[in-house]
UniProtKB/TrEMBL annotation:
Alphabetical keyword list: Signal
Keyword Heme: no
Domain Metallo-beta-lactamase: start-end pairs: 51-236
Entry protein name: MBL fold metallo-hydrolase
Keyword Hydrolase: no
Domain of life the protein comes from: Bacteria
One Pfam family from the record: Lactamase_B
Range of residues in the leader sequence: 1-20
SUPFAM superfamilies named among the record's database cross-references: Metallo-hydrolase/oxidoreductase (SSF56281)
Length: 390
């Protein structure tokens, strides 16, 4: 199909969508009206466990897709909804190299062969090299993952502006956070930010690459780089206010790091090793604060793997070199104290540190002037404040 005809079809379809709210170019087969001058992006989410999103953006020259799901089977379900819009596909953008975002690229290419697949050079390199061996692992865990991947047709430098399908995007690249490399796509005319996995919504993230501190730094950069971002479209979970999603993700990571740090403290039950009891307490503590947060991966042991990865990261950290953004903090409304175990908190003549199990109890040593024959477990309230005197 030549470019002129594609523009004609896109213009006609956009006009129909504007006139007929019945179809509304919906993301999930339901009606959606246009938001302002630009219609909201469509969205398809694969089923849990490991639900992941693909988006389609209406543009003057056709649809722009963001990410391609985990498997060709999931991709074909999304393709069926995309075809219902009646619009051509102008391009496909990749946010990062994780299997659940690129496994369906071949199916999308077969369905829309004229649409180039775009990725940053860093993401394309990560896909081709697969230094972590994620793709063989994905194939062994899920037989529907493709035997061969479809790579990008065009690459660009992170940070380079893109004009795709008649729409201008700002891009930004990040390294060593949720993934080794990641690209976000920001649309200045609407304030839409397509963030990949840098901030999910009400999901249990994957921390298995062991860069939770780097991820916290990236979240701080996201807020600074895109202060006008309105809606964030995450790789997992539903879209929402950009600031809210960034802040929620930051708090999750800080809480998780605080709990794991307590478990790997020298004077914890396992020393630098997280014991099975400590692992259960961390899992229980996170589940209590974040109930009904399905995992982003179809990996039943994702929380346990997250604990192991963050434990390795924290034990390797130089305490004097930890960035301020990565410092553990007691969160308002926390279900447990998230300060490091080495931090002494003296109240009512006792010095306390987090204890496992249970997560609501601190193991306390007598403070100055207290009876040193008595060591009491001290319950804290939901806000981390001492619940009773000892």
């Amino acid at each position: 199909m030549n470019q002129r005809l594609r523009r004609l079809l896109a213009t006609a379809s956009a006009a129909l969508c504007a006139i007929a709210s019945l179809v509304g170019c919906s993301s999930d087969g339901t009606s959606e009206a246009s938001a302002g001058k630009a219609a909201r992006p469509g969205r398809f989410a694969s089923p849990n466990p490991g639900s992941v999103n693909t988006y389609w953006i209406q543009a003057p020259e056709g649809l722009i897709l963001v990410d391609t799901l985990r498997t060709p089977a999931d991709a074909r379900k999304a393709i069926a909804q995309i075809r219902e819009t009646g619009q051509p596909v102008a391009a496909i953008l990749l946010t990062h190299s994780h299997p659940d975002h690129v496994g369906g690229a071949g199916a999308f290419h077969e369905a829309f062969p004229e649409a180039p697949i775009l990725a940053s050079r860093a993401t394309d390199k990560a896909m081709r090299e697969d230094r972590r061996g994620f793709y063989p692992l994905a194939r062994s865990a899920n037989p529907r993952f493709p035997a061969e991947l479809r790579y990008a047709d065009r690459t660009f430098e992170d940070g380079a502006p893109l004009r795709v399908g008649g729409i201008r995007f700002k891009t930004a690249g990040f390294a060593y956070g949720e993934s080794d490399t990641a690209t976000v796509y920001y649309r200045p005319d609407t304030g839409d930010l397509f963030s990949g996995d840098l901030a999910g919504r009400k999901v249990t993230p994957a921390l298995i690459e062991g860069h939770s501190c780097g991820w916290l730094g990236i979240l701080a950069q996201l807020r600074r780089r895109f202060p006008a971002a309105g809606t964030m479209y995450p790789g997992h979970g539903t879209p929402g206010p950009a600031r809210t999603l960034i802040d929620d993700q930051r708090r999750y990571l800080q809480r998780f790091r605080g709990l794991v740090r307590s478990a790997v403290a020298p004077d914890s039950p396992g020393g630098g090793t997280v014991t099975p009891g400590e692992q259960r307490s961390i899992s229980t503590g996170m589940e209590r604060v974040y109930p009904d947060h399905p995992p982003v991966a179809d990996l039943p042991t994702i929380v346990q793997e997250n604990i192991k990865a963050v434990a390795r990261e924290l034990t390797a950290e130089d305490a004097g070199q930890v960035r301020a953004v990565c410092a553990d903090r007691t969160q308002k409304g926390a279900a447990t104290l998230s300060a490091p175990a080495s931090t002494e908190i003296t109240r009512h003549r006792v010095a306390c540190r987090p204890s496992f199990p249970p997560v609501h109890v601190l193991r306390c040593a007598p403070g100055p002037g207290a009876d040193r024959r008595k060591v009491h477990p001290v319950p804290f309230t939901e806000s981390g404040v001492l619940a009773r005197r000892v």
